[in-house]
Predict the 3D structure of the following.
Amino acid sequence: MMTMPPRTPDRFSARPIDGLADLSVLRSEFSHWLTSLGVEGEKVDDLLVVISELAANAVRESAAEGTPPTVRAEYDHRALELAVENDVDDTSHGVSTDGWDLDDPLRTGGRGLLVVSALVDEIDVEVHGQRLCVRCRLAIADD
């Protein structure tokens, strides 16, 4: 069972995500956090899809030996930034992002990042050593 560390009102983190079974708890906690900040409606729905896709990818693609995937988010009352990280091994197709075209529906692999890129304003995929990080940003305020 996933345990949630304390969080400040404008920050969300969950560690570790030990498996796909933890995703429902993660979605529930994330939804409660968003609504406590005043985020509502379609933005919450979109962000729940985003966190579900990214966290599921992180769990599936994590190296057998390594740090469990992590999720964190920050909200600055105008935009939300969400980052999902996981360790990958040398055989994972996630280690190299060369040639990834997030706008190409015919690219190899799943469609999770394609779905995420349609729901957020910005998406960035980075690899640092054996750590893969997908970072997204979505404007919340309309002004």
Summary: The longest strand covers residues 79-87. Residues 54 and 84 are 6 Å apart (CA to CA). The chain has three helices and five strands.
